[in-house]
Amino acid sequence: MFTLFKKELDYYLNNAVGYIVVILFAVFVNFLYVKDIFLNGSVSMKSFFGIIPWLFLIFIPAITMRAFSEEKRLNTIELLLTLPVSEAQIVIAKFFTYIVLVMLALLLTFSLPASFYYLAHIYLPEVIVGYAGAVLMGASFIAIAMYFSTLTKNQIVSFLSSLLVLFVLLGISSDLLSTLLPKFIQDMLVYFSPIYHFQNFAKGIVDLRSVYYFVSIAVLFLFLTVVNLEKRD
Amino acid sequence: MISVDKVTKKFKDKTALHNVTFEAKKGEIVGFLGPNGAGKTTTMRIILGYLTPTSGSVKINGLNPQEDRIKILSSVGYLPENNPLYPEMKVKEYIQFIASLKKEKNVDDILTAVALKEVLNTKIEELSRGYKQRVGLAAALCGNPDILMLDEPTSGLDPIEQEKIRDLIKKLSKNKTIIFSTHILSEIEEIADKVIIIHRGNKVFDGFKPKKKGAVATLFKKVVKD
């Protein structure tokens, strides 16, 4: 499995596209956060972590869109599946490659919180829990996007379909929806929103229910991805 | 040994293979002959466990590809139709990737056998079709497989490259069971010990290659017409 993981990671490390996407993510996060600081006139990690889910909405479908759609287009999926590796090993190797990319992208955003730790004395454990939550949320988004990339040979279709689904998930807890839906439905739906669960981490709280939520989504969609790969007829 | 027993494969309402039965013994070179769309690739994919037969069974050295796919694939080398490769990888990286998955240690010997050493640091996308085919063959040879399955190994190559690939297959055939598919009649005459002709999903001939020159063509015309 390590061989597969290394091959996938090498693709991004030897490819300008990988660097561009990761750097763009970091640039946008830093830019939007600094803009927020100047608008609010105060340093708060809340706005920093508020940006992350919405940038993941673009970033994660962008890095995962080729996961299986490109393998299908080139028919290298047949090559992979006629080598002595299981479908689950292929899926897990790709999943961890994307986790590493998300971690790299998040690492590039760490300079601002790190400077504010010295300048504004923000509470560091809160920041670390927030980052851990971002990785967990990223993992669940990756699993969803990988599943959608098994459904098509077209990278653009894969990108747009996972973007749409993630947008709906993020939109569940939006203010717009709360004005449109009855309160009891809104209360029920909000539990399915990644933002609702990520907010706990952003506050520095490790809520096991939120951990369970992100892990469940990741496991469910990775399982569905494996099932889809097993369907070849 | 490969044993295919009454295999039928249906895709929705289309029957791609119908009740196909044959055997390939150790050391035999079996030529799989048939027009495009006859069912050659489907048969190969079923043997490898990539596709599941609708009915019937396949055994490779006594193992069922559906149940022991990974174990079987460790001892089978496969060159898929149209030779899918990772274009962005260098030849060396690609062969090392496959060798690592198939636990092959003598990569150098393979690269020498298929004459790839001069393009080791070239990206696959920059190679000629002939060289790409050699890369696919090298990948199929990793892990010292007992069985080689080559799906149209000379397809799309010019006559000189075709000849080179055929020579390579003959050279590699010692102690291996080779099943190769083709629609080129002369290829069967030159390489195969045994011929299996598939037409519209049915096996229409299974036997040793006729020795007389041109006999395969006559046989093919006869059974495909019938």
Any overview of this molecule?
The complex is a heterodimer of chains A (233) and B (226). Chain A is mostly helical and 233 residues long. Chain A has helices at residues 2-13, 16-40, 45-64, 69-74, 76-81, 87-107, 111-119, 124-149, 155-171, 175-180, 183-190, 194-202, 208-230. Chain A has one domain. The longest helix of chain A is centred in the middle third of the chain and has 26 residues, at 124-149. The radius of gyration of chain A is 18 Å and the shape is globular. By secondary structure, chain B is of the alpha/beta class. Chain B has 8 helices and 9 strands. In chain B, α7 crosses α8. The longest helix of chain B is centred in the last third of the chain and has 14 residues, at 159-172. Chain B is globular and about 45 Å long. Chain B starts with a strand and ends with a helix. Chains A and B meet through α1 and α5 of A and α2 and α3 of B.
Distinctive features:
heterodimer, A: about 230 residues, mainly alpha, globular, B: about 230 residues, alpha/beta, Rossmann fold, three-stranded antiparallel sheet, about 25% strand
Inertia-based shape of chain B? globular
How many extended strands of chain A? 0
Assign a percent range to the helix content of chain A: over 70%
Main sheet attributes: strand count, strand direction, barrel closure of chain A? none
In the predicted model, the low-confidence regions of chain B spanning at least 5 consecutive residues are: none
Task: Give the SSE order of chain B as H and E letters.
Answer: EEEHEHEHHHEHEHEEH
Number of strands of chain B: 9
Q: Terminal Cα separation of chain B, in Å?
A: 30 Å
The helix/strand order of chain A is HHHHHHHHHHHHH
Oligomer: heterodimer
Percentage of residues assigned to helices of chain B: 25-40%
- Beta-strand share of residues of chain A: under 5%
Q: How many separate domains of chain B? A: 2
Output mean pLDDT of chain B: 85
Strand order of the largest sheet of chain B: 5-6-7-3-8-9
Percent of sequence in beta strands of chain B: 25-35%
CATH 4th-level superfamily of the largest domain in chain B: P-loop containing nucleotide triphosphate hydrolases
Number of helices of chain B: 8
Would you tell me which CATH topology of the largest domain in chain B applies?
A: Rossmann fold
Q: Which structural class do you get from the secondary structure elements of chain B?
A: alpha/beta
What integer is the average pLDDT of chain A? 88
